[in-house]
Amino acid sequence: MPLRADAPPAPTRIHRFSRAERWVHRLTALLMGLCVATAACLYIPEFAELVGRRELVVRVHEWAGLALPAPVLAGLASRAFRADLGHLNRFGPHDRRWLRAALRRDKRRASRPAGKFNAGQKVYAAWIAGATLVMLGTGLLMWFTHLTPIMWRTSATFVHDWLALTVGVVVAGHIGMALGDPEARRGMRTGSVSPEWADREHPLWRR
């Protein structure tokens, strides 16, 4: 059926992320990158010898970790950011279906329905938020050593070190997934995506 002459043209790009959301992501990624890089310099001897200046690396690591929640807290002033937090925190039947398909390694699009965020992105967001809070808490116990018993500091160091390793692996996986999806990266960089990508990857997204 031909389009009416006065019908609006089909959109060439679809708005996905606001400017505030993109800056929250960029600043969080920068601070997380600093934390991971400085942690590597502190715990891997080859990197420590290459960089040197351990005291400076420690200070950068501490302050980057302390500032890590700041972009998210600042982003709460954005209505779009708060709306997307609501999407990330809400699981539906289609998300359970997506996770079952992922566990079965079923890559068919029909088996992985998704709204604005798929179930994998929701799980990642929840996990990294929780891990960040645990890292911040244990890091503060390690920083202010005179305020807690030695048993607390020893336990905090154990949790902090092993969780840091896990965070590094998970973040590397997140980056790998992003590298495999140029349109998703473009959406985070420019704020918009193609209608074809949206229909294919997020068919339940009511835009």
Q: Which structural class fits the helix and strand makeup? A: mainly alpha
Strand content: under 5%
Distance between the termini: 24 Å
Radius of gyration: 21 Å
Main beta-sheet strand count, sense and barrel state: 2 strands, antiparallel
Task: Give the mean pLDDT.
Answer: 90
Helix content: 55-70%
With strands numbered from the N-terminus, the spatial order across the biggest sheet is 1-2
Query: Helix count?
Result: 10
Low-confidence runs of at least 5 consecutive residues: none
The coarse overall form would be: elongated
How many beta-strand elements? 2
What is the H/E order?
EHHHHHHHHHEH
Summarize the entry for a quick read.
With 207 residues, this protein is mainly α. It has 10 helices and 2 strands, in the order βαααααααααβα. The longest helix is centred in the last third of the chain and has 30 residues, at 150-179.
